Amino acid sequence: MRICWAQYTLWVVIAVLGVASMLAGCGAKGELTLPPTASQQTEEK
Hints:
Number of strands: 0
Largest sheet: none
Structural class: mainly alpha
Oligomer: single chain
Strand content: under 5%
Low-confidence stretches: none
Shape: elongated
Helix content: 55-70%
Distance between the termini: 70 Å
């Protein structure tokens, strides 16, 4: 059974996009907590 070139290309594109999205998340910097909501901000004032 031969694999169609379009099916092979689809798997390559899926793999490349998956690896790229994982690498994009590696360098994310910043706070690891969610910012306070609007109701919490009004109570603090």
